[in-house]
Each structure stands twice: as structure tokens, then as C-alpha cells.
Amino acid sequence: MKQSTITVLESRGTRSGKVPVAANGISLGSSNTAAMSAATLSLDPLSIAFDGSDPLSQFAKQQVTSLGKDPLSRMAAEMEGALPVAKSTALGSRSSLSKSKEPTNLLELDLIEPWAARRGAILNKYTTSEKLSIVTSFLTGGETIKPQTTMSEKVKYRLEQLDDFDEGSVRQMLDLSQQEYVVKIEQLNHELVQAWNQDQRVKALKIAIQCSKLLSDTSVIQFYPSKFVLITDILDIFGRLVYDRLRTKADYVHPGTREMTSLPENFTPDMVPESAKETCQNWFYKIASIRELLPRLYVEIAILRCYSFLAQDEFGLALRRLTKMIRGIGDPLVAIYARCYLCRVGMSLTLDRTYISENLDDILMIYHTIFNGGIRSEIARHRITLNGYASLYLPALDWILQGVAILTTDNQLDDILQRCKEKKNPALLLQSMMQSFRSDFIASRATHFVQILSTISVEGLSRGQLFRLLGSILSHTPPPAEQRLSVLSSAMKAITSLGNVEEFMQCAEMWAQYTSQHFGLKEVDIFLGSVLQQMAPKRIYEQHYHELQVITDKIVSNAQDVHGILALDNFLPLLDLFQKESIKLEVCKNILTSYRNATACDNAIINDPVVTNALMYISRVLNDSVNALTGEDERRQISGLICHFIRKVDFGRDFEQQLAFYVEARSVLSNLDTALSTLIHSVNRLATSTRRIVKGQHTQKTAAFVKACAAYCFITIPSIIDVRTRMELYLQSGQVALLNVCLQHADSCFEAAINLIPEVPRTVENDGKVHSTEGFIKTFIVNLLSTLVIVPDNPTQGVLYLLRLLLEVVPKYPFEPTSDIFSSIYLHVLDFLSVAAQEVYPYHIVNVISNDELYGSDPKFIAEVNELCCTVCDKLLQHLKVLLESNALRAQSQLALDLLLKIITGADLSVDKMFTLTVHLWNLAVKNRTAIEAKQLVSVTLINIILGFGKKLCHFL
């Protein structure tokens, strides 16, 4: 029975592909998940149903795992699954139950940027338009490469038996584009996973070997880093598959039970059965038999994690052995990427860092070969520059140096820095060092780095690129305060002396942020002067608009004193360099945006003429960019920025200078309705402030000033396009003029507002929806009537001239025939006339003689009021007839009731005609009483009784 059981478990370990584990466990190559999933789906339905094994093995597995257990074993297994943490520790699992898991490798320390974060950037940066080739026996198509079969080659091909494949001849695919090459690599990935799931382990191994061989091809050298990423993704998957299979075969009998248990996460080699160890050794023996060095290295590195099944401290020994083996690779580019892969896998396995230092030592040992004659002739053949070739080393070198810097003291890093700078052409090493070492280490030695970068040989790289990188680091991690100025001075001196304007601008783009963040206005102005000095000759600035824009944005957005920046001598000349209209517009918009963000939450004001002129110049640029094709959102955004600037300008008690500023702004901002509206509101506020200061008693000087303000508003309002906005501004300006006893200006504003009523469109579109303007008309007229109550009549215009004008123009607006807005307006006019006939008005304005004082309830005036009342009532009666013809009975009853209320509260019912009208209105209202709310009818009846009208009405009825 025991032998039979072991046989079944062996079958399970052999056949079980564990597809979900393999597909989900791809931590180092997430892009391959889709390929693995596709491979799984490509299997036949039976394979999917039985997890890659045959049906008999599947049923046997189910029997062993469930039905084959005796009751005691099943009970023990269930109890073990329910054991608390404390019970598990009694079974020998203490170390895995600590509350905070101790890190077991360098990557778990979270001190290094994960490879997955770098992967996408490498694929995007290192691309090519040249044709690529691929040699494989697992993809269809391509040219067949016939293996030699002579007697002299037999021994060779016996040693290379793992390099050939039985199912087909090796084929070479030529003239592949980059995209096609990536597709072929993904197909190899798919083939590897599918072969593994079908228990074709040898085929999967051979695919991994052939993929590794591709990394020896540098025919398209500029694509090599991306090829490395794609191939190592496949190798990561292969290593994961091998490890998961070995762990599946390493199931063991838990002490105290008879049940087979999977290895825990933190298993030790003594827990691994001998059969699993033997299988693991067989994998390493197979890989050791690979003839070529490069695939033997890469495939062993891929399954390096499997050493955990064999010995406790095997990782360190294996990593150092593989480090020495890489010395046999002749091409320095191929070698450094092999070291990168070794360090990447090693960091995920152990905390040991010795092998990383040894790899760095080997890199420094052969560093000079990167620039020797053979390499130079090779890159000349590839037609790339030495700078382009050197940049190919950066991804691998950055990763290795970042690993070296983990948990390393500053003294050790200083030693590495010293060794690197002593090399010939150390620019590549220094750039990688600045990208990989801690930023605080770089910042604390900023002066030393500036000195090094200013003097070293930079063949293979540009000095400007190094200073740009240093500026980027110092912008986020500044050096000590006592070093900052000397660092800036020395760096700018070196940058200015580069002799290459393009490199200067690239550096200045980064150092602009450092300068604006950590220095005052003087240093910023000197920095801008340096930029101007480099850009002015021969209109060079036209080729560097982007860099100039970035510099300007950083200076303004990081400034501690944005007003001071705008007042610098070199700031406006820098803006003048932007001759291209679209770029200048974007720069000016960004400046005003930064200004708004910097001053939105404070009470800071602008009263410096230099700052005001600078912002006015920027506002002029934005205003001039607005035309008929400008979108509404763009127009709204620009207007908001300019209005914020207008509201910030405040000259205190110097009202005349304030008004002069508004006059200048009006001439500049003629294309923006919102800006003009803000100016008018500001001028009205200025006139109101003047009245408050003199406490309503104007002197000759202040009276002239408020008249000038009123004139400004009256002249500016016609420039606004929107009719409704003009009406509201006329009304507001008229009210302010009336408050300041500028009666003539007030009359002009009110008259202009009334005359605009017929120009209001019947509907307007807002946010894609059409709205009627009748509600706006009603609100506006009600507000106007409340103001006209205290407006004295102009002796040259007649009694209630403005009201007569209003009654004349209101019918010209295209109301709906049955609109209740029309009748509501006339009802409000009746309210106005009722107030106008009173002996004393309910409110007044100081120093303004209203009609109650002007006429003193003169009978002629009252007669005019009564005449207007009759005219309004006639209009309402006509509207009642229209409602009847339109069968709008509910609206008719409501209007009759509303008019009835107006009459009984404001008219003399002792007049027979008035009383008769009231009775008819009551009859009309109650005729359709079902259309009126019962509560409203009850309220009206109570009012009638209170006023004594009830008895008359009842008697009449």
C-alpha cells in the first residue's frame, strides 16, 4: 500500500502543471501573464478539466487526498487546519509565526526601486527601426539552417544535444521589425508555457536555452537593453515553473500525521525529500551540460532559487561562482547585462551583498575596454555615436550600483566614488552613481561633485548631461545651507562655459528649480540674466522655446515672492523672447495661473507699478489671443485669471490712481466680457467706498470723482456682448450713481437698461440646455421697480417717465401668449403705483429728493398715477381674455384672484366702477374654484371680511 501510494503521488507531481500557480506567480515578468493564460486556453478540454494530467491520475489523486484517508487521519487533518497559531508553533513552525516577518532578501527591504518599475522605461527608450532576426526551432517560417552531420562534428553535436530539437530544424527569421520581433518573443513565451503544461520539460528547457542564445546577438546593438528585458521575462517564467514543480514534488509527511503536506514558505533543505533533491540536482546537471557559456549562465541563474532545496547556504557560493564565470564573456555589453541579471535574481534570494561588490569590481576591472579601439570600430560599423553606445550600459550599471549602495556606509560609498573617478573617461560611472546612490549622499557632497564634473573627461557622455542630473537631484534634496551658494556659483560657471547652447539650456532647465527654491530675488535675476545672455545672439531662442518655457514656469511656480519675481529686471525681457504666439500664450497663462495659486489664500495686494505693468502686459497677451474661434472653456479660463489679477490691484486711498488703472485695463481687455464686468463692478465699488469715506456728504472733488466713475461705467457697458449682462450692469451702475446723487447718470443708466429689454432673446443655451429668459426679465424688472420708487422724476421728461418707458417696451419682448410672467410683471407695476401714490415712501436715499417730497401728494400727480393704474388694469383684463380664448382656465382664475387682491388692498372700493370690477373678478376667480387651492380661497375670503368687503359682496350677491 505504501509503494502504491508513493506511485500515485509521483504521478501527481509529474503530471500536475499547476497552471494557476505558474500563471499567477510571474512576479518578475508581469507582461507574460497574458501569454501564459493563452497557453493554458490552447490546451484541449480534457487537459483543462484534469489540470494537465490524464483522467486516471486525476481520479487517483482525488482518492488519496480525500476518500483514501481513514477517519482518524481525516479528523487529524481537519483539526490541524483549525489549529490556532499557538498550536502550530508546537509543531515546529515558530519562526514563520512572528508578527512581523523578517526580510529574507534585499528586495524585501524596500530600499531599491523594483525592476518592474524600470522595465517599461527601458522598453520605451531603447528602440530601433532596423531589421531584426531570430534563430529558433519552435516557430514556423524562416530559413532552415541544416545541422552538419559529418563524422568530425558528431562529438560536437553530442555535447550540443540540448541545443538541437527533434521536432524541426533550426530556422532563422530575417528582416523582422521591432514589433514583429516582440510578437515572436511572446510566441516563444507561449510555447514554453504550453510545453511545460503538457509535461514536455525538455522542450521547455530547450526554448529557454535558445532564448538565452539570443542575448549573444548584438547585430542591432541599440535594441539590446530591450531584448534583454524581453528574454529575461521568459527566463523568469521558466525559473518559476521549475521551482513550483520541485516544490510540488517535495511534499512530505508532517510529523505526527500520516498526511502528505506541502512545504511551508520558509522551508529548510532537511524538510525536502531525497527524491525532490535528486530531481533538483538533475536540473542543474542538465544545465551544466549546455556547451555554450551564455545560455548555461542565464538558465542556471533563472533556476537559482532551486538551490534552496539542496543546501542552506548554497546561494552565496553559487552567486560568487557565477560571477567568476561571467568573466569568460568577451563582449562588455553582453557581460554587464549578464551581471545585471545575476544581481537581480540574487537580490530576490538572499541578504548577502558580497557577490554584488565582486561584480562591481569586475566591471571596474574591464571598464577601459568599453572605449578601446575594437569597440570603437564596432560602434562605427553600427553607425551609432560613442555617447549612444555608452548609454546602452546605463540600465544594467544603474541596477548593480543601486544594489551596491544598499545598507552601505558613507565611507564605503566614498571609496567607490574615489575608485570610479580615477578611471579614464569616468563620466558613465558617475552618471550611474548619481542615479543609483542615495540623494542625501550626493547632496552632502555637492561641492565635490561639481568640482569632479567640471574637470573629468566626458568622452562617451556630455558634461551637460551630468550637470543636468546633478541639478535634478539637488532640486529635490538640497545641499547643506552653507554650500548652496557656492554650489550654484560653481555649477553655473561650468554650465556657462560648456560652449554648447543646447547643453546649457538643458542644464538651466533643471537648475532653474534649484535656484528658485533655495535663493532670493538677486540670485534668480542673475540666473535669468545668464539665460538671456546665451539666448539673445542670432535669435537662438527660437530653437529653445520649450526649455525657456520650462524655466519660466519653474521660476514663477517655485518663487517665494511672486511679486518680486515679476518686478525683476530680466523677467519681462525673458518673456519677450517668446515670439511664437501659441507658446507665448501658454507661458503667460501659466504665469497668471501660478500667480493665482500663490495669492489665492492670502490678502496680498498689488500696488507696485512695475508689478502691475508686468501683469497688465501678460493680460494683454491673453486678451489679444481671444477671437471668434476661441472656445468657451478657454475664454472662461483666461477671464478667471485676469479677473483675479484685477481684484488684487489696490492703491489704498489713492482712488484716482485706482481709477486710472481701471481705465488702462479697459483699453487692454476689450475682448473679454467677464473682465469688463469685473472692471465695472470694481469702479462701482470704488465710488461706493468714496461715499463711505465722506459719509455721504460729497465735496466738490469727491462729487466730480464719483461722476467720473459713473461715466466710466456708462461708457464701458456697451462694449459687453451679452445683453443680460449689460442690463444688470446698467441697473447696478444706476443704483450706485443714485446713491452718490448723480441723478442724471442714474437716469441714463436706467433708461439704457429699459431700452435693452426687447433685445433679450427669448431663449438662451447654457451647458447644452435651452432655457427661457422670461424668468430673468421678471427678476430684472422687479429689481428695477424697487429702485424706481425713490428715483425722482426728471422735470424735462414728465411724471413717472421711466415707468412709462418700461410699460412701453415690455410688450415688445416675445412673451408666451399664456405666460404668467407677463401678468406678474404688470401686477408688480400696480404695487409700484400703489407705493408711488403714498404720502411718504417706505425708504429713501440721503440727499436724494424722491417723488413723495417732490410732488407732496399733488392731485395732478395722483391723477397721473391713477391713469397709469387704469392702463395697467386694462392690460391685465386683455390678458384675461387671451387666457380664456386659450382655454387656460386655471391661469385665468389665478390671475383674476391676484388682481382682486391688488385692488382690494390698494384701490378705493367706494367708487362704483372699481367695486363692480372687483365683483366681476371675484366671480371669475370662483367660477373655476377647483383650479385654485382651497387654502388660498379661504385666505382671500378672510381678507375680504377684514376689509369690510365681505358684507358688500354678500349684499350685492
Verbal overview:
By secondary structure, this protein is mostly helical. Helix content is about 65%, strand content about 5%. Among the domains are: about 115-140 and about 170-290, no CATH class; about 330-435, no CATH class. The protein has 48 helices and 7 strands. It has a 3-stranded antiparallel β-sheet. Strands 4-5 form a two-stranded antiparallel sheet. Strands 6-7 form a two-stranded antiparallel ribbon. The longest helix is centred in the last third of the chain and has 27 residues, at about 860-885.
Kindly list the characteristics that best describe this protein.
elongated, 3% strand, 957 residues, 3-stranded antiparallel sheet, two-stranded antiparallel ribbon
Can you describe this structure in just a few lines?
By secondary structure, the protein is mostly helical.
Strand percent estimate: under 5%
Low-confidence stretches: 1-99, 142-149, 161-168, 950-957
Distance between the termini: 116 Å
Over the alpha carbons, how many angstroms does the gyration radius reach? 45 Å
Shape: elongated
What structural class should be given to the helix and strand makeup? mainly alpha
Biggest sheet: strand arrangement: 1-3-2
Largest sheet: 3 strands, antiparallel
What's the tally of helices?
48
Q: What's the rounded overall pLDDT mean?
A: 81
State the total count of DSSP E strands.
7
Helix fraction by DSSP (H/I, runs of at least 4): 55-70%
